[in-house]
Amino acid sequence: MTPWSRFRKSARVLREQLGWRRFLKLADPFLARSIDPIDQQRRPESILVIAPHPDDEAIGCGGVIALHRKRGDAVHVLYTTDGGRPARGAATDSNQPATRRTEALRGLDILGGATQEFLDLKDGQGDISDTGVKAIAKSIEAKKPDRIYVPWMLDNHRDHKASFEMLRKALAGSIPGTAIWQYEVWTPLVPNRYVPIASVLDLKERAIRAHETQMKSHDYASASLGLAHYRGLQGGVDAAAEAFFAIPAEKLELFTEL
């Protein structure tokens, strides 16, 4: 490792540590934990899921998508990037965005079906684009979601951070009654909500495995199911669970300094 590489790594670690400290200070009023059995809720909801890449929705919140669909909630998934960046060591494939789109549709069908849209921003660039912000704002206006699922604000992936930031800008303050549920993919979050997903765990696994291009490089399905079992133990669910950090939309502005 070169001196410059060591410096960059040290700087990144320092930024992450400072981000965690600021987050914990700001998040303290919201950290009371609860179990939210989605399948027992009464009123049908409108759900918006923001996924940086095809497969993030299945990995991060595939269980809750299946639960929402089982109870008749309308689910709309918005993919911010085209998923075109090849896995490490793999050759560039011009057909990959189209292939991953097909995999996304297959995975959503397994979870119960959902409407979807693809913004096709460049994968791996971490772009916080005006086009993306406007598209998310338009989707929010059209769907009027009760809940919005999005990667956690401190997820250590540039596209995931960018997706969260575009949502924050798109909200432009607050939407009364809308809750922001942040899910985990690359970086474990500090949860305040646990959703039991044992009844749909097989659907989550199948949906992840539908993303065959990604499963070739990493066994995301096994890793995600292992995390679900751990989160269930941690949250007192005594079964598999997905974990989230949930806050009202109007409180997002408290976290802008992160």
Summarize the structure.
This protein has eight helices and eight strands. With 258 residues, the chain is of the alpha/beta class. β3, α3 (96-111) and β4 form a beta-alpha-beta unit.
Question: Can you characterise this structure?
Answer:
This protein has 258 residues and is of the alpha/beta class. The longest helix is centred in the first third of the chain and has 25 residues, at 3-27. It has an eight-stranded mixed beta sheet, with helices on both faces. The chain starts with a helix and ends in a 10-residue tail after the last strand. The chain has a single domain (31-255), classed as LmbE-like (Rossmann fold), CATH 3.40.50. It has eight helices and eight strands. Helix 5 links the parallel strand 5 and strand 6 (179-183).
DSSP helical segment count: 8
- What's the CATH first level? Alpha Beta
Poorly predicted runs of 5 or more residues:
none
- Which sequence of strands runs across the widest sheet? 1-7-8-6-5-2-3-4
What is the CATH superfamily?
LmbE-like
Q: What is the mean predicted local confidence, pLDDT?
A: 90
Cα radius of gyration in angstroms: 18 Å
Count of spatially separate domains: 1
Helix/strand/pairing category: alpha/beta
> Per CATH, which architecture?
3-Layer(aba) Sandwich
Q: Care to count the β-strands?
A: 8
Q: What order do the SSEs take from the amino end to the carboxyl end, as H and E?
A: HEEHEHEHEHEEHHHE
Strand coverage percent: 15-25%
Which overall shape is indicated by the principal axes computed on the Cα atoms?
A: globular
